[in-house]
Design goal:
This protein has 248 residues and is of the alpha/beta class. The protein is built from nine helices and eleven strands. Helix 3 packs across helix 8 (179-196) and helix 8 (179-196) packs across helix 9 (207-218).
């Protein structure tokens, strides 16, 4: 019997215009994921980077007992921020060993400070979905613009925005938990994007909108966010070691 796996997953898809950064990332620049990879290895965890344009040479050079690279084909029907969830779902569905817990994170602005799976806040909440957050409410100007497409597609989206307007904005750049709750959440997240976010022609990806909608309307009793999961978003607290993840 194999020991159940604890995984940290991230996607690095390049060659596609990034609407959040207003640029197109270079194809074979390991420096963009280096801090993430080194922090995962330092925490003695298993990290997997899904990518579409790293060279074989780069992958061979930087893979090690903790970090591996898996090439995927990008589906242009979805923005890269959204397509990553389908990559994770399909990979985990065929993973050959038992999975105990999973976190998925952004890769170029997130690093690990400590192993989340060993922390009492994690072990004491076995049915929780842990995620990042931001120091602002759900109802803010950016989220109102970001959700324009979904608001027109999902019947109760406006009602959800009204109900949770003053709740903390959750951030999908970090989320995870024990495999049963994580897997169910990921499956439903992919279903929302598949059904409602394919034809999104706005300047916004819909990933934050779909994530907050699903988390608040169907998993709200499971949600745990903020300390000790993440540092304050965009506070650049790069020296903090008291949280699981540092996010910008």
């Amino acid at each position: 019997m194999h020991t159940p796996s604890q995984l940290i997953l991230a996607c690095h898809l390049t060659g596609i215009y990034d609407v959040n950064r207003n640029t197109t990332l270079a194809d074979d620049t390991y420096a963009l994921v280096q801090d993430w990879a080194e922090s995962v290895a330092q925490a003695n965890l298993t990290g997997i980077i899904f990518h579409n344009n790293f060279s074989d040479e780069t992958c061979k050079r930087y893979q090690n007992e903790h970090i591996s690279f898996i090439r995927v084909a990008y589906n242009p029907e979805f923005n890269p921020n959204v397509y990553r969830y389908f990559v994770y779902r399909d990979f985990l569905a065929t993973y050959p060993e038992p999975i105990q817990g999973v976190f998925v994170t952004d890769v170029s602005d997130v690093t690990l400070a400590q192993n989340p799976f060993k922390h009492p806040f994690y072990t004491n909440h076995p049915t929780a979905l842990f995620c990042g957050n931001e120091p602002k409410p759900l109802r803010n100007d950016w989220m109102i613009d970001h959700a324009t497409h979904l608001r027109g597609q999902i019947n109760d989206y406006q009602a959800y925005e009204d109900r949770f307007a003053n709740e903390t904005l959750l951030n999908c750049g970090i989320f995870g938990g024990a495999f049963p709750v994580f897997s169910e959440f990921l499956q439903q997240l992919c279903e929302i994007h598949d059904q409602y976010n394919r034809a999104n022609k706005t300047a916004y990806t819909g990933d934050m909108g779909a994530f907050n909608y699903l988390a608040r309307t169907r998993f709200n009793q499971n949600i745990r966010h903020g300390f000790p999961i993440n540092t304050e978003f965009k506070a650049y607290q790069n020296d903090r070691m008291d949280c699981w993840f540092r996010h910008k």
